[in-house]
Amino acid sequence: MDASNFNDAVLIVLGHGTVENDNSAAPVRQHAAELRRRKIFRDVREAFWKQEPQIKDVLAGISAPRIFIVPLFISEGYFAGQVIPRELGFGEHPIRLRSEATARQASSPPSQCDGAGGIQPAFAMLWRGGHSTLLYCHPVGTHDSMTDVILARADEVVKKFPFPRTPKSSETTLFLAGHGTEKDANSRKSIERQVELVRAKQIYADVRAIYLEESPRIPDCYLLAQTKNIIIVPFFISDGLHTQEDIPVLLGETKKNVEQRLAAGQPTWRNPTEKNGKLVWYSPAVGSAPELAGVILERVGEAIENL
C-alpha cells in the first residue's frame, strides 16, 4: 500500500470492547500500534463500542478529509453489521453502500439495506459536514485471507508443543471454535466460509466448526473427530473470557484448574492435553495474530477500489 495515497487519511481500528475483561482491548491496541509504526496514514486511532475511548468520541476529535473505520470483528453480525453503522449515522444520511458480493460483481447496483433493515457494509460511505468522508469497511473476520491466519495459528501451536511428536496434518482434525448466536444468522457465516476455504486446501483429515451458543457445540468435537489428534483454533478477536475460561472448561478442563492457572498467569490449557481418547492442541485466538494488520489494510484498499 502506497503511504503517499493515505497521508490525508485517518484510520480507526474499531473493537467491541468490554469493561469486564482487560484483554478484550489488547488486539485493537496491538494492530493500531503496528499500523502507526508503518506511517501509512496521517494518524491511526483505537476506538471501541463498549469501552473508552468510544467511537463517537474519537470521531468527534478527528478532522481529516478521509476517515476509514475498520471493525476488528469476526463477523458481519448484529453489532458490526447493524448496530454500530446505524448508530454512527450510516442508516440515516445519504450513503453509498456495496455488499461484498456487489464488490465482486461491479455490474450490480449498490444496495443500501438488507432485508432486515440492517446495513450491508463492504463499505459504507458517509459525508460528514462537508469536511470528511467516512468509510465504514467490512470486518476483518470475513476476509478470505483469514484462512492464512487460521492455518498459521494451527501450525504454530503444534510446532511449539510437539510432545510426543508433531502430529501429521493428515492424521488431524482442525476445529474452528466460534461464538455463534441465534440473534443474527450472519454471525456464523464467516466461520463457515473459513471452514470451506481450509477444507478445500486438503491439508487436514477434516475441518469443522464448533460453537459456544449454537450446534454443534464445543464439547461435540470429541464425537465429531474421526482422528486421535485435534487442533482447535478459536475464531475470536481477543483472548478473553470465552477463549481463556469458557472453552477450556467445555473441552473438559476443570474450572478449578482454569482459575488457578489464570491467577498464576499461566495458559489455561496445557498443550497437548489428552481428553476422551483424543490429543488436543488449543491455539491462541486469531485476533492477536500479527497478520491481522495486513488484513486491516486490505479492507481499506477495498474501500478505495470500490469508490
3D architecture notes:
- This protein is an alpha/beta fold and 307 residues long.
- It contains ten helices and eleven strands.
- The chain is elongated, with a radius of gyration of 20 Å.
- 42% of the residues are buried.
List its salient traits.
307 residues; alpha/beta; six-stranded mixed beta sheet; five-stranded mixed beta sheet; 10 helices; elongated
Structure summarized in a few sentences:
With 307 residues, the chain is of the alpha/beta class. The protein has helices spanning 26-38, 55-60, 78-87, 100-104, 146-160, 189-200, 221-224, 241-250, 255-263, 292-305, and strands spanning 9-15, 43-48, 66-71, 95-98, 123-128, 132-137, 172-178, 206-211, 229-234, 273-275, 278-282.
Quick check: average pLDDT?
86
- The residue fraction in helices comes out at 25-40%
Q: Give the overall silhouette.
A: elongated
The largest sheet is: 6 strands, mixed
Unreliable residue stretches: 93-122
Q: Please state the CA-atom Rg, rounded to the nearest Å.
A: 20 Å
Number of helical segments with 4 or more residues: 10
Strand and helix order? EHEHEHEHEEHEHEHEHHEEH
* Proportion of residues in extended strands: 15-25%
Structural class: alpha/beta
Which strand order spans the largest sheet, edge to edge or round the barrel? Answer: 2-1-3-6-5-4
Distance between the termini: 17 Å
What's the total count of β strands?
11
